[in-house]
Amino acid sequence: MFIQSKITRCFMTIIVISLFALTSVLMADNAFARNGERREGESYRTERRGSDSSVRERREREGRSYRTKRRGSDSSDRRRERRVIRTPRFRRHGHAVPRLPRGYRRFWYNREPFYYNHGVFYRPARSGFVVVVAPIGVIVNSLPIGYQRVWVDDVWYYTYGGVFYSRVPSGYVVVEAPADVIIEEDIPALVEPPEPASGTVSIVASILNVRSGPSLNYPVIYQIHRGYVLEVHGKTVGWLYVQLPNGEFGWVMNIYTTRLKPPGSG
Questions:
Q1: pLDDT tens digits for range 73-100
Q2: Angle (nearest 5°) at CA 113 between 111 and 119
């Protein structure tokens, strides 16, 4: 009986130890599995962060590349665009005048004398003065009435008579015309004279506007100085249709002219 009880206790002890060992093994296995899952999760998150970072960096690179290409494309588009600016008719280079208009300003450029008045530059000539190209770099105090302000390639320009200026502290400096700008003269249609006329007249005003029609409502297409002699080709009330020194035609007010007698007449 005693032996049987001792055997039973030993058997029970073995069972308890086995269960404890099995439980320990299972717990250790679960802990190992959890550690493995945690490591896998951390590895996944690290890879995911790395992947997200790579994606973000790649997208940023693509975005920068796109913006750079877009800016380049926009610049190319701006370079390809041709900006047309319409301006009133201006005096041709080489046109000679017997005297300078009142209010001119003299300046020196490359040790040569130049004269400026109302957007027009002159040089001395044999029979008076001749209209010349505006010298680049010359500064004028003010712009003539009727100038235009234009925005080209992120810069403000001022233009009149085919000449471009930039603002400087002391006035306006003559600059090169922007490469993408085309100047077109706005040449209005001339009104034909209703009555024929002939003869010659001399200008008595210091500066006389020549218009495209016989009214102050028509635009000025030219200016003529005192002393010029013009041939008359037509007339209407208060106006004469004359031929200008450059061969073109226009209308002037009769009161600012004096009729000349033909040669040999008393």
A1: 454 444 446 777 766 666 667 777 777 8
A2: 125
Pairing status of strand 83-88 against strand 181-186 = parallel
Distance CA 132, CA 240 (A): 30
Q: Radius of gyration (Cα) for the chain, nearest Å? A: 46
> 195-260 is classed in which CATH architecture?
Roll (2.30)
Q: Are 165 and 152 in contact (CB under 8 A)?
A: no
Domain ranges in the chain? Answer: 1-81, 86-186, 195-260
Do the Cβ atoms of 238 and 178 come closer than 8 Å?
no
Instruction: Determine contact, residues 118/125, Cβ cutoff 8 Å.
Output: no
Half-sphere exposure of 76 (CA within 13 A, CB side): 6
DSSP 122-191: EEEETTEEEEEPPPTT-EESSPPTT-EEEEETTEEEEEETTEEEEEETTEEEEEPPPTTEEEEEE-PPPP
Give me the count of residues in the chain: 266
CA gap 2, 42 in Å, rounded: 59
At 91, is the secondary structure helix, strand, or coil? coil
pTM confidence score: 0.49
3-class SS of residue 12: helix
- For the chain, residues with pLDDT lower than 70 are 1-81, 86-92, 185-187, 246, 263-266
Task: Give ∠ CA 5-11-12 in degrees, rounded to 5.
Answer: 90
